[in-house]
Amino acid sequence: RSFMRDAEAIACSRRMNSLTLNRHTEILEILEIPQLMDTCVRNRYYEEALELAAYVRRLEKKHGGIPVIQGIVAEVRQSAQLMLTELIQQLRTNIPLPTCLRVIGYLRRMDVFTEAELRIKFLQARDAWLRSVQAAIPEDDPYFHLTKTVEACRVHLFDIVTQYRAIFSDEEPLLAPEQPALNEGAIFHGWVLQKVSEFLQVLERDLQRGVGGRLDSLLGQCMYFGLSFSRVGADFRGQLAPIFQRIAAATFSKAVEEAVEKFQEEMNSYTLISAPAALGSAMAVPVPAAQPGTLQPPMVLLDFPPLACFLNGLLVAFNDLRLCCPIALAQDVAACLQDALGKV
């Protein structure tokens, strides 16, 4: 009896070995799936990697209790996680619309995120890339930094909006019917408002640092930026006027204050006795005739240098204001000028 039992065990083992030998190719293919999956992911053959992952999921459903299959599933999941990381990392680079469509298509097939989470991930990744572009702009010169920021935001932000609208449709529900309703455009519009708000903060900060007499040039660039965004329903030109109005008023007020301070300093060391005596006895200097329609300060101001310098300071302030002069500043400018004249 013992011999019979040993013989049956040996025969059973022989049959298993024969079956294993006959199915050697199929078994080897299954055992090599993790290595093949890793190779596909590292070489960016994402289509083949997704097919392998789907096959492994079917294999797990049929033979999930086998330890070897469990090990294969675990290794494939690690490769799938690496693939997920690489796909999201691609969204953090400068990629065109066709590549974005492919990447989002792969992420959808991986079935890792819900539709709402996928939108958030897309916006987060593209936002990270946009921030890296903005961070690379030198901040030494406020005018250069602002012009490059306007250009970067206008081009890249518009591209991101175009990509988002091409990939995601706001007509599709983000949640299942049994879940609470969610405004489809809330995610996207909230992100756009955040980017516009951040740009306005950068604009005001750089303008306060000083851009010289180039306020009109920046206003034109910003208005063009806002006009381009009106095509996607995010026209923010109305928020630009108060910012430039405040900066123009502050610049004019500062220039007038400097003129008043300089006048007071010169008056401390000026006396009528110190004026050149030749002014009264010298021959009259011919005054050039003023052209029709032009205004010139009276030449008698040359007898009083502090007053002439004060007038020059005011004219410089008005010339700078003329480049970017909102009508709403009329009362503020008049009040500032009246206050300065009162001090003089």
TrEMBL record:
Pfam families: Dor1 (PF04124). SUPFAM superfamilies: Cullin repeat-like (SSF74788). GO terms for cellular component: Golgi membrane; Golgi transport complex. Keywords: Golgi apparatus, Membrane, Protein transport, Transport. One of its GO terms (biological process) is intra-Golgi vesicle-mediated transport. It comes from the Eukaryota. InterPro entries: COG8, Cullin_repeat-like_dom_sf. It is found in: Golgi apparatus membrane. Its main location: Golgi. It is a peripheral membrane protein. Belongs to the COG8 family. This is Conserved oligomeric Golgi complex subunit 8. It comes from Penelope pileata. The lineage of its organism: Eukaryota, Metazoa, Chordata, Craniata, Vertebrata.
